[in-house]
Design goal:
The chain is an alpha+beta fold and about 140 residues long.
Length: about 140
């Protein structure tokens, strides 16, 4: 007999959120320890920031080296999101969006992030402005 379990939207979102949290936490320590100094400098100076879609974005103009760093990070994120989304029974876009919500929530004062309207904001001591669909 072939039985398929169908989750309610809220249960599916909870499963997706749990998987996203685990993947973000699993990568946080190694990623922090192995960051390129050029990436750290770009993040600290506001040249890059977290996008609402779960990927890293360039704020304004960037040279080829910075674009290469951002592209590399985003390629690794996409691969991780695809793997985790499949395991969670979610789409890549759903998973990436949830990861983006979490990444924006984890920004620290002075870092850039993308607001729901698409504008780049600088994180203050207040919580960041996030999409109302974020957990």
């Amino acid at each position: 007999m072939n039985r398929t379990t169908t989750l309610s939207p809220s249960a599916r979102f909870g499963t997706l959120l749990a998987a996203a949290v685990l993947s973000v936490l699993a990568l946080a320590a190694p990623a922090q320890a192995q960051r390129d100094p050029a990436y750290e400098a770009a993040r600290a100076s506001g040249q890059v920031g977290e996008r609402t879609d779960g990927y890293l974005g360039i704020v304004g103009q960037a040279d080829r080296a910075l674009r290469s760093i951002v592209d590399d990070i985003n390629i690794r994120r996409r691969a991780l999101y695809a793997e985790k989304a499949q395991a969670a029974g979610a789409t890549l876009e759903e998973y990436a969006f949830t990861a983006g919500c979490l990444a924006i929530a984890r920004t620290v004062p002075g870092e850039k992030y993308q607001a729901p309207d698409g504008s780049w904001q600088t994180r203050s001591s207040a919580p960041p402005v996030r999409d109302p669909r974020c957990p």
